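Bug: token stream looks shifted between consecutive jobs. Job 1:
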Amino acid sequence: MNSLYHRHRAVIPDWVALYYQDPIELTHGEGRYVWDAEGRRYLDFFGGILTTMTAHALPEVTKAVSEQAGRIIHSSTLYLNRPMVELAERIAALSGIPDARVFFTTSGTEANDTALLLATAYRGSSQILAMRNSYHGRSFSTVGITGNRAWSPTGLSPLQTLYVHGGVRTRGPYAAYSDERFIDGCVADLEDLLGHTHDVAALIAEPIQGVGGFTSPPDGLYAAFRRVLDRHGILWIADEVQTGWGRTGEHFWGWQAHGQAGPPDILTFAKGIGNGMSIGGVVARSEIMNCLDANSISTFGGSPVTMAAGLANLGYLLEHDLQGNARRVGGLLIERLRAVAAGVDAVREVRGRGLMIGIELTEPGTDRANPEAASAVLESARENGLLIGKGGGHNTSALRIAPPLSLTVAEAEEGAAILEQALRSL
């Protein structure tokens, strides 16, 4: 073990996990590749948890950050901020939410925290609906609504949370149903649940569950939920922290796979928009965003430097059609991985869309989670020059594959070949 690891252990909390038996220090990156302190190069299929969205060391972003830092780094939201207004205008227009207002934070956790504040204040209720197997952040309020035991260290919460079926298609009581019957069953469960509650503030849901292992319902589930919610005046919060900005290929936002009943009332985002800079945020209809009756600001949300990065990054993404690239290259990659997995007994399912792909691993011949296999594949992939992620919820273990959206076909094949070797070594 290197000395930096021992220094880390001496001052960083034990619950801050590190990947790999011999943790690595990443020192620099370019494109879809990163290098460690020993000079080893890796193809990056995780992007710092879906955050390096376009490319490492993207010149357009680097230049924008450097130039803005040379002018002014910080001012807070107490002063007019041109980069913040410009990025807010672009995101409001892209969001699909009418008369949208945008509030910037520094993380997805803080964005979801703000969405919960808005929804509960607007509705005058502290009851929240969330999905089983969900993850929404590490603050006190977001841990309390997270439906994934591995990431929720306390049951204490300022909110009362009720969990709904539907976030996982191939497990649970409705797994054997057709897609249509699955949606009907989940809607019936929601209707029944609402019959046992007082007024509910909002349903918060990830269109594709990130930490939970890239699981998702059939398209249209949240539209069917939305019709029920609307009858009760309940808000829909779409947590797009991992699914936004075209990563799913087919849609710019994950909610658009469920858009038949209209856009969400509140949308949260973070991760990829800053390409590594700390940007999160909330988009909401004006009457919801403006409902707070007390002062609020953000010291670091909307920083001129991070906003400059976000503008440059979003501009590059749109100009180079990285959503289309995610659809094309991601489609090739998932089919390649499905072909590989067909010959590996430990693989239960390859799922996802665009460049957001999950490989669920089980003990061969069973539905039991196989975290040992997931760790073994993670280690083998790293040894052969590929970085991937892990995830999963109740009795599940999954590999998470989410490269930068500029991934080339050749790089997709390179990563798939390494993953094939790692999976077959099981």
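Job 2, same session, no restart:
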Amino acid sequence: MIYLCKHCGQKLGSIQQHMIDLSILGFDQLSVKDKEEMIVYKPNGDMHIKVICEDCQETLGQHPHYHELDFFIQ
């Protein structure tokens, strides 16, 4: 499981376990829509979790209109 910023693509962390109880990580609390937006299953079996890094969160805080954009980093 690899955590990546959904805006800049920076790798934020990973969990190197073959069997992970997703409820321990709180994924059972997400709506179906949130799961579809946040979790990407790769063909090689990796699971990528889209989150927001501190730098992008700070940028969004300074420029709230960026929330309207799918991508704000060029």
